[in-house]
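Much of what follows relies on a compact textual record of a protein's fold. A complete example follows; check for yourself that the lines match position by position.
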Amino acid sequence: MLKQLVALFFLLSLLDSCSYFEKKLERAPIQEVDTIVDFSTVDAFPLFPNCKDIPSRSKQRICFQLEMSQYIYASLKQFKLNAKERVNDTVLVKLRVNILGETSLSGIQISKETKELLPNFDSLIKVSLQGLPMLQPAIKRNMPVATEFTLPIVLKN
């Protein structure tokens, strides 16, 4: 009889201890995470080394656009663009800055007439981008992200 009582007491304490551990292992409440992300904007634009110290986001964007335009213009100015006829066109160059800050050409929108007058224009743009300094990539939610932007280049002679 004593063995049965000890066994019963042991079983009751074992069952009680299981419920005791369940109460101790309460789960923390799940925090809601903002899952709506606007992928059309970034928190910080890609930056050239001399644009990093500018505090305003809008001024950083202007600095980036000016630096990129000046660099491409100076690079294209080294090449002689000889056209048989007058050229008056705007070429849209689509550039991509990856998460490492490397810039690459992702597309060129050029009219058929301008392409015939300047057949090697796209290769000149590619050569111009090779010497571009390493940029600080764009930032979205404290993470580097790849960005694409369009640079208009006005051709007139």
User: Anything to note?
Assistant: The beta strands are 88-97, 103-109, 138-140, 143-145, 147-156. The mean pLDDT is 81. Helices lie at 2-24, 57-77, 112-117, 121-130. The longest strand covers residues 88-97.
